[in-house]
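Re: [ENG-882] Designed sequences occasionally contain unexpected residues at chain ends

Forwarding the minimal case from QA. Structure tokens:
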């Protein structure tokens, strides 16, 4: 009789994460989107450093056609368009990442506490979400951005005078961070509702009842056993929310309420290109193309992750 340890016919068990990855690999569109996103991040955060200063102006060379020195040509101020597109991509992608991370943290924690707390606390917390839902999102973001920007001005002045930080870096930092925080701090409402519903379902399951019977504290059960089981949906929500945040930043920048000059983002570049769309269409088409490709890739990847992490898919 063959000893079980020596019998190689036994199949090794696969984790839920590995099963999800195997299902994701079968989705060619999602894998291609992942490759596109990796390439986009590499272009914006690594390759961008090889190109000229995106804010360097040369009025004698404005609206130059694409050439070896300027692959995408120059804009109305003689600035290298490719460099501005790549550096603008840094801002747009960071908005998606940072704002989504802020919204993810607040939404998961808030929704989990609401779903696991008593009925009275749950009702109070959800009514607060309803009130925030009733207020126009754009108005709240603008107001919160103004408040955070005022605090950032005080902090940036201290960073340059007392701490000796570079003024250009601090200025760009102080201009971008309030927008990140304002969008993320108000983008968690939908995730809070989703997480709350999940927690209310998970809290009735056997492993939670076993943890309660062992005498574990409520906070430990919530953060060690319940919240980790909601992260699959949160990951999918992240990939589907990032395009919305990036588009919202582009909308704010297009309206002149987002990133301030001389910094750029894809929204600002699209706004500037729209002013010359009849005479210099490449100023609009090129940043819009980068913007659209990124949004499509994020949406396709989100759809692929949703299918891969769907528990029902494991029964197929």
């Amino acid at each position: 009789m063959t000893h079980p340890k020596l019998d190689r016919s036994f199949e090794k068990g696969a984790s839920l994460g590995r099963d999800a990855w195997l299902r994701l690999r079968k989705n060619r569109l999602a894998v291609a989107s992942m490759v596109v996103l990796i390439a986009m991040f590499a272009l914006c955060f690594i390759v961008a450093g090889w190109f000229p200063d995106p804010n360097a102006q040369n009025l004698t060379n404005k609206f130059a056609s694409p050439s070896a020195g300027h692959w995408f040509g120059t804009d109305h101020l003689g600035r290298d368009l490719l460099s501005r597109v790549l550096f603008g991509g840094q801002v747009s992608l960071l908005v998606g990442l940072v704002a989504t991370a802020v919204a993810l943290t607040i939404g998961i924690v808030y929704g989990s506490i609401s779903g696991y707390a008593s009925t009275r606390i749950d009702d109070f917390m959800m009514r607060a979400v309803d009130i925030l839902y009733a207020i126009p999102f754009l108005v709240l973001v603008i107001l919160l951005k103004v408040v955070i920007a005022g605090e950032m001005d005080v902090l940036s002045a201290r960073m340059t005078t007392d701490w000796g930080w570079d003024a250009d870096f601090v200025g760009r930092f102080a201009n971008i961070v309030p927008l990140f925080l304002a969008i993320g701090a108000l983008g968690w409402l939908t995730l809070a509702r989703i997480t709350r519903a999940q927690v209310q379902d998970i809290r009735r399951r056997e492993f939670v009842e076993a943890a309660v019977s062992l005498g574990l504290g409520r906070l430990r059960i919530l953060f060690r056993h319940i919240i980790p089981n909601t992260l699959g949906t949160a990951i999918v929500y992240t990939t589907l929310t990032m395009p919305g945040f990036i588009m919202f930043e582009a909308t704010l920048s297009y309206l002149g309420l987002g990133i301030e000059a001389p910094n750029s983002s894809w929204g600002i570049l699209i706004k500037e290109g729209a002013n010359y769309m009849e005479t210099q269409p490449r100023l609009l088409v090129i940043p819009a193309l980068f913007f659209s490709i990124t949004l499509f890739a994020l949406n396709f990847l989100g759809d692929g992750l949703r299918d891969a992490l769907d528990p029902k898919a494991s029964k197929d």
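QA comment: On inspection the terminal residues look reasonable. The chain has one domain: 17-47+80-315. Proposing we downgrade this to a documentation issue.
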